[in-house]
UniProtKB/TrEMBL annotation:
Protein name (database record): 3'-phosphate/5'-hydroxy nucleic acid ligase
Reactions listed under catalytic activity: a 3'-end 3'-phospho-ribonucleotide-RNA + a 5'-end dephospho-ribonucleoside-RNA + GTP = a ribonucleotidyl-ribonucleotide-RNA + GMP + diphosphate
The keyword rRNA-binding appears for this protein: no
Cofactor names: Mn(2+)
Signal peptide, first to last residue: none
PANTHER family the UniProt entry points to: RNA-SPLICING LIGASE RTCB
Enzyme Commission (EC) number: 6.5.1.8
Keyword entries, A-Z: GTP-binding, Ligase, Manganese, Metal-binding, Nucleotide-binding, RNA repair
Amino acid sequence: MENKRINGNDLLALGYKENRALGIALKINSKRHGLKRDEMLQKFKEVLADPESFSEDAIFEPLAKALLFPEEKDTNIIPLKESTDAYAVYGEEHIEEGARKQMDVAMRLPVSVAGALMPDAHQGYGLPIGGVLATENAIIPYAVGVDIGCRMALSIFDMEDVALLEKHDWLKKIILQNTRFGAGNGFLKHERLDHEVLENPLFQEIPFISNLKDKAWTQLGSSGGGNHFVEFGSINFEQEDQELGIPAGKYLALLTHSGSRGLGATIAGHYTKLAKELCKLPYQAQHLAYLGMDTEAGQEYWNAMNLAGDYASACHEVIHEKVLKDLGVDRMAKIENHHNFAWKEQYKGKELMVHRKGATPAAEGVLGIIPGSMASDGFLVRGKGVESSINSASHGAGRQMSRTQAIKNLKKQDMLQMLNDQGVTLIGSNMDEAPMAYKDIHTVMAAQEDLVDIVANFSPKIVRMADDGSRED
DNA sequence: ATGTCC
């Protein structure tokens, strides 16, 4: 506890207010400056009590100035709208207040036209996870998110699901051999595969992206960490789906969830920083800095975001092709959909930029995959195209416990029991991804029955996630 | 989410 990072609450406890000075204090704190936690807290206390004596301090001068001249307005700051139109909230009774407040702020951006909150919404950075925001002629890097183009991909094989029992060990081995997990991890040089996404001209045109090409190659087909997974499971079609050409039955399927790895994360960081320099917003909205679509920076982000999306797609493709080859059976269908992205879409007759941060596109007839947890069903769905949701649905069950809460409160024995009850083999993972840390997927699906039709149920049976042991520092 | 902020 001694080394716990100083956060906003610590500063509020010292008497700081939710304003510009708080933001500056946190920024100073993040650089540490060789001060221990207690020393830093003491300094913050002293600056607050007597900002004047710090007005020429090498470290605390900006904080002292913000405290001395709180009302001094940067004339470049773009004001928020006083009021906005209402926005639709699905499953409101299960959504924390923090997510609502973030969405309220996002709606007040001068470029915002419409918004919606999905039933798995929870507090994020900038726009909440599960937030949908439609803007005019502007794109917001942090409304896309850090893991640009993160997605779900589902392959349905021409093999009965009984294989999950009868060929369990073989399937487990196929996952182990063809997937790589963990932050920073990828494939060894001799294991790397080529892919046309690496030929994208942005790898030549933009220097910082060019520097990422080798890592992108190494990480192609890897899954990363957090809530990402690769799993075999049983998909159950209660009735034939004519569009997919799949008869009623239970089949072996592969479901993957991952994103654009280091490439996307670095692109997100680069353009968020640029947006914050070019677009100064009031304190509570600063993470929602936007880039005009008619500006060079906006166009560059749009292109880089699309590259990250294509790369994320290529990562899934590599995994699915390897598994398909090892299985040696036919694939009946492959479905893929992404979240953490921005799309140019028509809304009420106008072209808008629709940001879906942890939300699934659900225009009429569009297929999507909404996973539950490692021990509960996920769903193959077909969108209904509801305008008030901005053609969207949730991207999963959503957390009901933060990672820290889950690690602190949940018992491993309970998780193992749950996995055992459901007949799930788990490779890797950690308590922060325990099924109990997530909302009940059935409640979430009920809250969005107006938004999507369920096509089939997917039950995970052999699940691989990142092993948390790889990052102990 | 990501191998730890220019």
